[in-house]
Design a protein that fits this description.
Oligomer: single chain
Number of strands: 9
Strand order of the largest sheet: 1-2-3-4-9
Strand content: 5-15%
Order of helices and strands: HHHHEEEEHHHHEEEEE
Largest sheet: 5 strands, antiparallel
CATH class of the largest domain: Alpha Beta
CATH topology of the largest domain: paralog of FGE (formylglycine-generating enzyme)
Shape: globular
Length: about 280
């Protein structure tokens, strides 16, 4: 990547709210680095892009991220399609780069296409990452309220995912009710998630022990519910409630559907609710 392109990207990262600047920078990048932008803005899966394009896209994201992120070691082996991942240096959270194309028709009323491309945590935030106590615990940081989770992430230049971002990443390109199939399929589900029919004792459980979804996200359903940024808009629940997604170890497979939703008060601290870190590529916060 030439120095002019890098300088343009740094300027964009420092001025994320300047839409005119963003359009100008992206237009110049489109002329000079069309393959990179095509990877970030057009592909639905990294399997559509060559290794060279994936490497260039990673370099672009590293420049935008400044000193806060570095590309992780290859993690292609954790799922069927290639994964582009980064380490968030101050928290130790591993973030997966999700390209920008999608079919909004699969996601319904909660989908907002301008939220992509996106960096999202490969797992929920763990206890060791949240507490920074050197314990190396890979248990979910559950029992953390929406308010506390949001504060922790903002202090690290991260944020909670929106509901639409979460569902897009959960589906992993699938339009089926569960990301693994159109039907419940308990045997297949047990490969991917902790749910009431697959456990012999109450959870939560260590993250990353089961097979990830097609995009490389572990425990995206099951184990613990996950806080989203959005206010709850459902029929039941208070106006102050926040959206939770993904179901937990105590739930049936019905709650593991990609479109299953729940809500909770933002000050609730529950052992079945955790959170996953997110970061926009072109607008860091």
């Amino acid at each position: 990547m030439d120095s002019s392109t890098k300088n343009s990207l740094r300027t964009l990262a420092l001025n994320p709210g300047d839409l005119a600047l963003q359009r100008d920078v992206l237009a110049r990048l489109a002329r000079s680095r069309s393959a990179i932008l095509r990877a970030l803005l057009s592909y639905q899966s990294w399997s559509e892009a060559s290794e060279e394009v994936r490497a260039s896209a990673s370099e672009l994201v590293e420049v935008i991220g400044g000193e806060s992120i570095r590309r992780s070691s290859p993690v292609d082996s954790i799922c069927d399609s290639p994964v582009v991942a980064f380490d968030h240096l101050s928290t130790g959270v591993q973030l997966i780069l999700v390209p920008g194309a999608s079919d909004a028709g699969d996601l319904g009323e909660f989908f907002q296409s301008d939220s992509l491309p996106l960096l999202l945590g490969r797992t929920v935030v763990t206890q060791s990452q949240y507490r920074k106590d050197g314990s190396r615990s890979t248990m979910p940081a559950s029992g953390v309220s929406w308010n506390a989770a949001r504060s922790f992430l903002q202090n690290a230049d991260l944020r909670l995912p929106t509901e639409s971002e979460w569902e897009h990443c959960c589906r992993g390109g699938s339009s089926s009710r569960w990301f693994w199939s159109e039907e419940e399929n308990p045997e297949l589900a047990a490969r991917h998630c902790w749910w009431s029919g697959s456990i012999s004792e109450p959870g939560p459980f260590e993250v990353g022990l089961l097979a990830p979804n097609p995009c490389g996200f572990s425990d995206i359903v099951g184990n613990v519910w996950e806080w989203c940024e959005d206010l709850w808009t459902g029929q039941f629940g208070s106006p102050a409630s926040r959206v939770i997604r993904g179901g937990c170890w105590a739930d049936s497979l019905a709650e593991m559907r990609c479109d299953a939703r729940g809500s909770a008060e933002p000050d609730l601290e529950a052992d079945n609710i955790g959170f996953r870190a997110a970061r926009s590529v072109f607008s860091p916060l």
